[in-house]
Amino acid sequence: MSEENVKTGGWRSNKWVRAAIPALLLHCSIGTVYCWSLFSQEIATHIGFSKGATEWAFSFAIFFLGMSAAFLGNFVEKDIHKSSLIATICFSAGMALTGLFIYLGGPDQSLHGSPVVLIGIYFSYGFIMGIGLGTGYLSPVKTLMLWFKDRKGLATGLAVAGFGAAKAIASPIMEALQKSVGVYAMFWILAGVYFVMMFVGHLLLAKPAGWHEPQGKGEKPSIMATLKTKPIGNYIGIWLMFYINITCGLALISQEKMIVKCVGLAASVGIISTFSAIFNAGGRLGFSAWADTMKDRNTIYKLIFILSIAFTVLVMVTQGIKNGEGNTLLIILVIALIMVVNAGYGGGFSNVPTLLSDHYGMGSISAIHGITLSAWAFAGLTGNQVASFIVSHTGSVKTIEYVEKGVTKTAEVNPDGYQNVLYFTLALYVVALLLCLFLVRPTDKALEAKAAKKAAKANA
Fold this sequence. Notes:
Blueprint: H1 15-30, H2 36-47, H3 51-78, H4 80-104, H5 115-147, H6 152-181, H7 183-204, H8 216-219, H9 223-227, H10 232-253, H11 256-262, H12 269-291, H13 298-318, H14 320-323, H15 328-360, H16 365-372, H17 374-393, E1 398-404, E2 407-413, H18 415-438, H19 444-459
Antiparallel strand pairs: 1-2
Helix pairs in contact: 1-5, 1-6, 1-7, 2-3, 3-4, 3-5, 3-16, 3-17, 4-5, 4-7, 5-6, 5-16, 6-7, 6-12, 6-15, 10-15, 10-17, 10-18, 12-15, 13-15, 13-18, 15-16, 17-18
């Protein structure tokens, strides 16, 4: 069943069946990559390595997500049916192989503590799953914009929200599976479940019957030719502000649990984490749907960065993370910052494809979007790593006690270190806002609306 064979009438021409549902099936599956923190310590203990060593598997997954999207964007452009099948196979195979290497590295296995196991997990979770992530992320996006021409932001926001919401949906399931069958068996079970979900999405996904995909030099200009329709600085601005938004988001989100513990809410970490995931998904849907009502989608990025700057400054000035424990107002400010950053982080993702399509058209959108996702790859290697470096090399560690489910527990936190991360993110947010204001030019739609308004005023 390929997109060329889609017939008119019935479910075959229903935009929800052919675009929205398959996009959700694909993105709700691959979005579980963000559940890594739920089992990273368990994996490290099981295979005999430090948590820091295993953390690189997640960084590699995000890196290869972005790079596979960048290099395979043209392939996705030509055939979403094959690309969604590759995504299905790579993602589920990567999960299954990750489970196999975790099993082989178990305490009672000969490979326990062997670098072969660690490299195998890097290869499976990082490289193979990374390819599935990149192709799976791209495959439904253009299709959604073709089916939902008048509400492109809402459509892409819906799918990308599925990517963000996947963590909230899958987290309790993964935790239950870890307790009942063990961490390696959890990967095997989920590999089967996600293969079925993604394969159904692959079968349903198709472009509208009336869409003719430009082919060849005569119909379709090269990506560079398309980008040169506007000053190259315009695209560089979009890439950089996307990179900065992800870097800042990851920097704060990676320290989120410890920040929550600093302000005296250690027993509520799980609840706050769930709410932050909801804000992440809500930002993807809400900001992109809101952008549909704007003449220039770049305005949404200005709002995201202004909000992020405002709440970051408030927490910096009040030293909210350091002084928040026992102070209700400061606790509210810190939690508000976490939620705003999560929402902006998600909204930055969902608005990129529609912003690019407004600037460069639909002809090569998958390829251009894929290249832009390379920003995600590099941000995945810098955001949380820079934040960890700042926390490790500044401030001082202290031990706090808290009660969780009637049991007294302790945790080591670094309030000054987390507070210092905000100086890093604030500087980058300011740079991103300046890029929005001065480097990323208004879209053709915005310029036309401005000219029409000017003409109407002159004729009044």
